[in-house]
Design brief:
Elements (H helix, E strand, L loop, with lengths): L6 H4 L6 H6 L10 H4 L2 H8 L3 E7 L4 E5 H17 L7 E5 L4 H12 L3 E4 L6 H11 L3 E4 L1 H10 L8 E4 L12 E3 L21 E7 L7 E6 L3 H10 L8 E4 L6 H13 L3 E6 L4 H11 L3 E4 L1 H10 L14 E4 L6 H11 L3 E5 L9 E2 L13 E2 L5 E4 L14 E5 L9 E2 L3 H5 L2 E2 L2 E10 L5 E6 L4 E3 L2 E3 L1 H9 L4 E11 L3 E10 L7 H14 L8 E4 L13 H8 L7 H7 L1
Parallel strand pairs: 1-11, 3-4, 3-5, 5-6, 6-7, 10-11, 10-12, 12-13, 13-14, 26-27
Antiparallel strand pairs: 1-2, 8-9, 9-19, 14-15, 15-16, 17-18, 18-21, 20-21, 21-22, 23-24, 25-26
Bound molecules: 5'-O-[(S)-butoxy(hydroxy)phosphoryl]adenosine.
Length: about 575
């Protein structure tokens, strides 16, 4: 019997107080995620239970019990407090998937500061815009990433501390840099936990939109109420599970379900700080005896591509429950996983903004391959008419996904961007920016995004950010960036580029421009193809019509260009 029991029974008189009660929280109490994920679990008698089984590509391994997690997060929290970091200050985690990322996250929350995790493959420009927007006080990083911080720190007077967790003493530290070694520090037994309340800011995750700079999605400690219960009922986590969330905590899946949810449930999780390979992943599952696996469609498609033969080399009978998030999970991937692993990957749908799972296939529920499933209890979901923002009533009609505000993990704002935040609400609904239909039985079927944002392998990339970065290249006069279809990543970045006079359109320049973007932004944002053009399609007012180029890439009808102009 799955944790959720029966979905139909659960939705009848659902109330989030179910989760509050299990967590021993009452309205008005102190609620601190850092404490809930470590101290509380120890108090419940699980101090010696393994919390984190960590390894990297070179075979290094480290294990932490919940008591170790409690002490390490105390130690980091105390160190930060000693530097003068206060509650509400933003502290960026710019780390590979090393233990300090997971432990530091809790340490930051314990002192009431705001955790700002950023993907460590970001280049200096991507890093800069996010730190500048948040006016981040401190950044916790590793030697290998310090050069990127050095490049931009003179533009950031508010950035007071650059904390290096693996300093080896070889080269002198520079201005504002300070070494911190978790292993050499005396463990802090008692840390005064900052008394954060439900509405205290906890985490700031950056997400990309079509226009403008990335937005800082502001979450609060009360998000725990959603994250805890969704993990229990959707991921079906149980006391003896070994859980593997493949997401990087630089993105919301990696924090909501890669730190907060499993540890608040006292679950053992494992982490592999290594790149993707089908063989390495299967070996990891076999070795760690993974029971619950939360991953992403692109990874699953890559595994499909690697073939079934390789699966047979490993004993994966430990697997009990599989789920996926981030992009459309095609029906073939669901059917394939059912056949090959004996368990279908269950699709879940949510966003950085929603903070927790919103639509999902539940264990025990009838699966319709290709569908995102149904709304989580307590989540009121619908599809809206794009013009009137009234719910569509006919099954199968495609509209905009809308959620009634009120679930605990909903973002509380975009950092310093009230106008964009307000623009997400219409007629009392929060609009996710995606389109879907709902069938007769209440299952949601994703049809696409309602904007130009590119979802490449589950990561959102803003065409605007890539276009702006391209313009900084000496050869580029103008550019337009769109998604192009890709077998594994679903979408990849493609750039149309018009060159300045004197530059020759050739393959060598294409590589140079690609590399330029990779370094400045990230490998995700790097165009996989550059098409040279003489000019770009524009509206009369001079705006680039990305949708014309997009339609061409996807072999779709361009549609009525006059309305297109109005839209832009
Ligand atoms: C966007 C959110 C929180 C998960 C990590 C991504 C797309 C997400 C699905 C799904 C189709 C999906 C949507 C959404 N998306 N899950 N199951 N099926 N599309 O978080 O970076 O904020 O991206 O990812 O377009 O709006 P994110």
């Amino acid at each position: 019997m799955p944790n959720i029991g029966s979905y139909d029974e659960r939705i009848k008189d659902f109330d989030w107080s179910i989760s509050e009660k299990e967590l021993g929280y009452k309205d008005g109490d102190v609620i601190n995620i850092g404490w809930y994920c470590s101290d509380r679990i120890c108090q419940m008698g699980k101090a010696d239970k393994l919390a984190l089984l960590w390894e990297n590509a070179t075979g290094r391994e480290k294990n932490y019990t919940f008591n170790d997690v409690r002490l390490a997060s105390n130690t980091i929290g105390s160190f930060l407090r000693g530097l003068g970091i206060n509650d509400g200050d933003r502290v960026c985690l710019f780390l590979d998937k090393i233990p300090e990322l997971y432990l530091g996250f809790l340490g930051i929350l314990k002192i009431g500061a705001v955790a700002q995790p950023l993907f460590s493959a970001f280049g200096d420009e991507s890093l800069y815009v996010r730190l500048a927007n948040a006016e981040t006080t401190a950044i916790i990083t590793q030697r290998k990433h310090v050069a990127k911080v050095r490049k931009i720190r003179d533009q950031m007077p508010y950035l007071k501390h650059i904390i290096v967790v693996d300093y080896d003493g070889r080269k002198p530290l520079r201005e504002r840099e300070i070494a911190f070694s978790l292993e050499e520090q005396t463990p802090v037994e008692d840390l005064e936990i900052f008394p954060t309340k439900a509405e205290s800011t906890s985490v700031l995750h950056y997400t990309s939109g079509t226009t403008g700079q990335p937005k800082g999605v502001q979450h609060v400690h009360y998000s725990l109420i959603s994250q805890y219960l969704t993990a229990k009922w959707v991921l079906d986590l149980r006391d003896d599970d070994i859980y593997w969330c493949t997401a990087d905590p630089g993105w919301v899946t990696g924090t909501s379900y890669g730190i907060i949810a499993p540890w608040s449930l006292g679950i053992t999780q494992c982490v592999q700080d290594a790149g993707f390979s089908a063989e390495a992943w299967y070996r990891f599952i076999q070795k760690r005896k993974v029971t619950v696996w939360y991953s992403a469609p692109t990874a699953i498609r890559s595994l499909m591509k690697a073939g079934e033969e390789i699966v047979k080399k490993f004993d994966l009978s430990c697997l009990r429950h599989l789920a996926s998030v981030g992009e459309p999970l095609n029906a073939e991937a669901v059917i394939w996983s059912e056949r090959v692993f004996g368990h279908a990957f269950l699709d879940t749908y949510w966003q950085t903004e929603t903070g927790s799972i919103m639509l999902t296939n539940f264990p025990g529920m009838k699966i319709k391959p290709g569908s995102m499933g149904k709304a989580f209890p307590g989540v009121e979901a619908t599809v809206l008419d794009p013009k009137t923002y009234e719910p569509l009533t006919e099954p199968g009609q495609v509209g905009l996904i809308g959620f009634k505000p009120g679930w605990p993990a909903m973002m509380r704002g975009y950092w310093n961007n009230e106008a964009t935040y307000k623009g997400k609400f219409h007629n009392g609904w929060y609009l996710s920016g995606d389109r879907s239909s709902i069938d007769r039985e209440g299952y949601f079927w994703f049809t696409g995004r309602d904007d130009d944002v590119i979802n490449t392998g589950g990561h959102l990339v803003s065409p605007f950010e890539v276009e702006s970065a391209l313009l900084e290249h000496e050869a580029v006069a103008e550019s337009a960036v769109v998604a192009k279809p890709d077998e594994v990543n679903m979408e990849v970045v493609k750039a149309f580029v018009a060159l300045k006079p004197g530059f020759e359109a050739n393959a060598d320049l294409e590589l140079k421009i690609m590399n330029f973007i990779r370094k400045k932004l990230s490998p995700l944002a790097m165009p996989q193809e550059i098409e040279y053009v003489n000019s770009l399609p524009k509206t009369r007012s001079g705006k680039i019509m990305r949708r014309v180029l997009h339609a061409k890439e996807w072999n779709e009808e361009v549609g009525d260009l006059s309305t297109l102009e109005d839209d832009e």
